[in-house]
Amino acid sequence: MSSTFFGLTIAYSGLNTAQAQINTTANNISNVNTDGYSKQVVNTVAASALRCYQSWGTTGTGVEATSVTQCRDLYYDEKYWNNESALGFYKKKQYYMDQIEDYFSETNNNTGFATIYAKMFNAMSTLQGSPGDETVRKQFISNAKQLTEYFNQMSTQLQDLQNSINDEIKTAIDSINSIAEKIAILNKQINVIEQGGGRANELRDQRAVLVDELSQMVDVKVTEEQVINSNDPERYTGATYYRVNINGQNLVDTYEYNTLSVVSRKTEEMYNQSDVDGLYSIVWTRDGDKFNATPSSSGGSLKAMFEVRDGNNNENLHAKVKSATRNTITVTNLSITDINEFNMPQKGLINTNARDYTYNSFSFNTDENGKVVSITFNLDQNLSGTEADNLASQELQVGDDVDYMGIPYYQNQMNLFLRSFCEKFNQIEQSGVDLDNNPMGAFFVARDTIDSLVEHQMNDALFTETDLGGGNIQKEGVTLYSTKDANDDTKKYETYYQLTAGNITIARKSDKDSRVFATTTAENYYSGVDAADIVTQLQDLQSKVKLFRGGGGNAFLQCIYADVTVDTQECKIFTKNFTNIQQVISQQRMSIAGVDEDEEALDLVKFQNAYNLASKCISVFSEIYDRLILQTGV
Questions:
Q1: Are 262 and 282 in contact, with CB atoms under 8 Å apart?
Q2: C-alpha distances in angstroms, 544 versus 45, 115, 550, 556?
Q3: pLDDT band at 629 (very low <50, low <70, confident <90, very high)
Q4: Of 477, 447, 445, 480, nearest in space to 465 by CA
């Protein structure tokens, strides 16, 4: 049978529980505007009944508050993290693509390619009418130089953006490492509290906020499992294993965490010809293994940075290894057979048989049509005999495949246009003579970083040097290589491989003396100063001659701008879509975890009433006991 004073104990349990519920509600109201805070509730159960050996069998013992827990749903958390990864990816990509679009745009405040290109050919039309007028000649040369400076500026802007993204990648890696360390510390603090029977709600909120932040940068997957006591599997330990994976690789494992490091690529490890020096690769600090920054899934803002920084649209060289020696690899079955279309650097990185190798130079052989049929890479490292044998028939690629039209892609598109345009322009010019009846050399040349301008003259001998890494034979900045065709006959082919948007300029002689520009051929030179048959041919380059993607030179900007705007528009559409999804998921998430002021106000009234009723019970029992003890007796 229960004690005479048992009712007081029951009323006290209700009073105590109502007090806990009021305190928890006050905590919720206090944190209504706290970012990351999840609503907390007091979980209650009816206390265990007592056997009373009466007809009713048992009697209730009141209420018991078992715990104070968060209102959180892992399902909505995972949906939110997945969406944040996609949103971070497109939002960051849009930020950079907007800048690239601005670079190529043609507005009133931005004089672009179309204006400069048309202006140069307008000056050429004037030159056609007065080819002997040095003032007119200077005006044309000035406009031609303005075109080269436009491409120099475009290349510099893209390289500056590439540098900026590179720095932001390092900042992102530092943030990831910091988040990993904080999560590991919180895991330990949470387990200490919960192993003691408590519930670390605030610490769990802090951990969830860190995962929210992490999900914007990379793909995140979180798992939490109970720690099982092997000696007593049924016993609840209170501890959990909390693991965080990013891009499919482990970052945090409960109390331990891994860190990432950035490693600057050396010059001989470049992927693309116009890349800036010192681009970062990401590796795991523990063992130096490469981190997959561009997973097949969404990937977050970090993947967007790598795609824009390194995106070459898969237009790097692919080939098959024909043979390998101690320090060379020779490849055939090339995906690119025109040397002027090569995007690979003179020194760089190649990958074959799942291994990376660096080369310091390369040479090539062509067929009778000047198409490249094989390339030999001169390696920085020595191969063993077995390793060299194992490379035969393996697939090889230069640099890395990044299937996106990023900065390297646009650099290469400018290079392709300039090489095609300058080759046609120089060929026409080299068929003529200047005002002094001297043979005309190349007009558009490549600026050399060491010698200021590469303008070495070529003699009539046949050269056998085919090494693109050094010792090149130059003809007014146009590298001339001697190669061997399939019949082993030595032939000479011009290549504009070393001419890029970053180094194009006009020949120093033409820049200093306007007379050094051909407007007519030697046969027509004595027809008079008004002979302009060469200029007539040059005029066709404006739109009539196919120079870029099957169109004339004037179509260059249309093609490039179409590429940029399509990608930019795609980023805008997906950013808007995922932003809308974020709002929906956030609402669903907050409907469970959020603190609603109206709901808390109702709860406060409800728990206050419960408290008042429990107090009333105690007051009633007090009167009963007073009557029993003081007023009952003999």
A1: yes
A2: 86, 18, 11, 13
A3: confident
A4: 480
Domains: count for the chain: 1
User: In a 3-state reduction of DSSP, which class is residue 187?
Assistant: helix
pTM equals: 0.86
- Only one residue has tokens 């965490």, namely 257
619 in a structural domain: yes
Token pair in block for residue 31: 């944190």
What per-residue confidence (pLDDT) applies to 494? 63
The Cα diameter of the chain in Å comes to 151
**C-beta atoms surrounding 122 within 10 Å:** 14
Q: Which amino acid is at 617?
A: C
Q: In angstroms, what CA-CA distances link 439 with 177, 247, 450?
A: 63, 61, 27
Question: 541 φ, ψ to 5°?
Answer: -70, -15
pLDDT digits (tens, 9 = 90+) for 537-553: 999 999 888 888 888 88
- Residue 364: strand pairing partners: 375
- Both structure tokens of 625: 């006991």
Mean of the per-residue pLDDT values for the chain? 87
pLDDT for 549-573, tens place per residue? 888 888 898 899 899 999 999 999 9
Question: 577 Cβ partners below 8 Å, 6+ apart?
Answer: none
Average pLDDT rounded to a whole number, residues 223-242: 87
> Hey, what are 436's tokens?
């002094």
pLDDT of 101 higher than 70:
yes
Amino acid at the residue 128: Q
- Structural domain contains residue 5: yes
User: Residue 26: which domain range?
Assistant: 1-71+595-634
Residues 551, 557, 561, 563, CA torsion sign: positive
pLDDT at 237: 84
Looking at residue 335, the DSSP 8-state letter turns out to be: S
Asked if residue 29 belongs to a domain, the reply is: yes
Residue 38's Cα: distance from chain center in Å?
A: 33
pLDDT-above-90 percentage for the chain:
62
Is there a domain that residue 97 lies in?
Answer: no
Question: Cα–Cα distance between 509 and 503 in angstroms, integer?
Answer: 17
pLDDT at 452 over 50: no
Q: Which of 608, 621, 628 is nearest to 11 (CA)?
A: 621
How is residue 140 written in tokens?
């044309």
Burial 263-295 (b: 16+ CB within 10 A, else e): eebeebbbbbbbbbeebbbbebeeeeeebbbbb
Beta bridge partners of 375: 331, 364
Backbone angles phi and psi of 400, in degrees to 5: -135, 145
Residue 242 — left, alpha, or beta (φ > 0 → left; ψ -120 to 50 → alpha)? beta
What are the distances in angstroms from CA 632 to CA 6, 169, 623, 629? 19, 84, 12, 6
531, two tokens: 């002979």
